[in-house]
DNA sequence: TCCTAGTTACGTACACCGTACGTAGTGCGC
DNA sequence: GCGCACTACGTACGGTGTACGTAACTAGGA
């Protein structure tokens, strides 16, 4: 152990202010809000310490008094958008409540298309994440299964929401700083896919393509996936 | 449209070589292999054009003759590890076959801990992805549901595998270039979580914590999640 | 056969990134 | 009132992706 660097504390365990010295010109929340604003408007890659500082009208290095590392900034950002979850009063219908939670998560991700990318790298138990977890458990109160199963349900459902929504918005986030539109990029990718399938190298895939008439309703696909997951945990449906 | 930049072709649609000029000193596959090697050994953040060039013993800018943008490199990397999927002969038991596919995906991600992070940003229909998709459809041949439902099953299952495995390995990837160990970082995070739960602010979460006796077997949790998803699509189980 | 056009390889250069470090000034706790 | 812990911030360093220019090379058309 001797000589080894100590593990820094989680950002949430670090006190925002200790009392001594000049009054800070901005708070941790200000920084997070600025970062979120930048990510929303100009994409996640535009979230640099310099840009945040510019947005806040302060020097770049001042930020490090509030946020020790950039990775902590990412946790702040995720926590900030986590606050957008409405922690409504559970209705007693756990399926409906969880569907509502899922819909809200999806909506949040649509508003902040960079969220899935950050979630893939950060395992955060931020205050708002914990609050949301607790809220989900409250919604699941009527469900008569062990608590461990409930957390598994929450994890599974959140995972499905994330991956499904991430696929929808991946192109949006990618084409952020590029001189062509999302639709154009999608068209190119779909054209390639169509050409590949047409070669005959993927017969079953081709059949699946041929089967579908008209455009897929992504919202409907999403809804079905959620229902399936909920079914898998519903004692009355098995 | 006039004056607008054209959308570049998907990397897979670009021919590897057109015939004129000097013989290339390395191939696209060489670049992908070098990138994967670096990512495995030193983490995804170490995958820079300069490092790849050093690994290949060539100039940095030479790479751009083979890979127009770095994002394309990411697609190459994902396709390269996609080749590690064993496309076995379907047994006729679609559940067993899909479980095997899922286990392989999980194993691949454990070998290449950077995969989830890349998958969150790249929507790729690379050759190996298409082959894997076709293979999954072959495994699902005995399942008597519409083709659309089968693709939904594949998507849902892959999503679950990704999110579950990503959570396991997120810390591994994060602590790559940092002077403390994964265990130490996890300990700090868990300590914080324990402290928060102990405050009493999250009673249901606390109850869930108290309920579990002994450490959770992540592998078992994973297996259960898969079974649940498969159940949701199994006509004989509903 | 030779010429030329398209490709490859590669060095230089630029704008940008995270952040280590040093300095100056502020205001709470003793 | 003093000291010290804290804030703010400028400078600088080593890294990044990649635009651009140049030289060498080779296949196809004359």
Brief synopsis:
Chain A has two domains: 71 residues, Orthogonal Bundle (Arc Repressor Mutant, subunit A), CATH 1.10.10.60; 153 residues, Tetracycline Repressor, domain 2 (Orthogonal Bundle). By secondary structure, chain A is mostly helical. In chain A, 60% of the residues lie in helices and 0% in strands.
Describe the structure.
2 copies of one chain form a homodimer. Chain A is mainly α. Chain A has 2 domains: 11-81, Orthogonal Bundle (Arc Repressor Mutant, subunit A), CATH 1.10.10; 85-237, Tetracycline Repressor, domain 2, CATH 1.10.357.10. Chain A has helices at residues 28-42, 49-56, 70-82, 94-111, 115-119, 127-139, 147-174, 182-198, 203-211, 218-233. The radius of gyration of chain A is 22 Å and the shape is flat. The interface between A and B is large, with 77 and 77 residues.
What keywords describe this structure?
homodimer, 238 residues, mainly alpha, Arc Repressor Mutant, subunit A, Tetracycline Repressor, domain 2, 2 domains, 0% strand, flat, DNA-binding
Topology:
Two copies of one chain form a homodimer.
Chain A: H1 28-42, H2 49-56, H3 70-82, H4 94-111, H5 115-119, H6 127-139, H7 147-174, H8 182-198, H9 203-211, H10 218-233
Helix pairs in contact in A: 1-2, 1-3, 4-7, 7-10
Chain B binds a DNA duplex (30 and 30 nucleotides) through helix 2.
């Amino acid at each position: 152990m001797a000589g080894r660097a100590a593990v820094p504390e989680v950002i949430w365990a670090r006190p925002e202010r200790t009392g001594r010295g000049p009054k800070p010109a901005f708070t941790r929340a200000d920084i997070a809000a600025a970062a979120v604003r930048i990510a929303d408007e100009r994409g996640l890659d535009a979230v640099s310490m310099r840009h945040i500082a510019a947005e806040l009208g302060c020097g770049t290095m001042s930020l490090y008094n509030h946020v020790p590392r950039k990775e902590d900034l990412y946790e702040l950002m995720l926590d900030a958008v986590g606050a957008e979850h409405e922690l409504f009063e559970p209705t007693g219908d756990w399926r409906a409540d969880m569907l509502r939670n899922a819909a809200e998560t999806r909506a949040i991700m649509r508003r902040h298309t960079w969220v899935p990318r950050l979630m893939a790298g950060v395992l955060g138990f931020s205050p708002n994440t914990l609050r949301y977890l607790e809220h989900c458990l409250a919604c699941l109160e009527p469900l008569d299964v062990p608590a461990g199963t409930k957390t598994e349900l929450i994890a599974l459902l959140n995972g499905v929401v994330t991956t499904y929504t991430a696929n929808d918005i991946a192109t949006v986030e990618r084409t952020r700083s590029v001189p062509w539109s999302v639709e154009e990029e999608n068209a190119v990718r779909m054209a390639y896919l169509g050409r590949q399938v047409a070669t005959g190298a993927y017969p079953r895939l081709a059949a699946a393509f041929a089967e579908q008439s008209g455009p897929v309703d992504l919202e409907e696909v999403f809804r079905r996936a959620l229902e399936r997951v909920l079914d898998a945990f519903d004692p009355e449906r098995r």
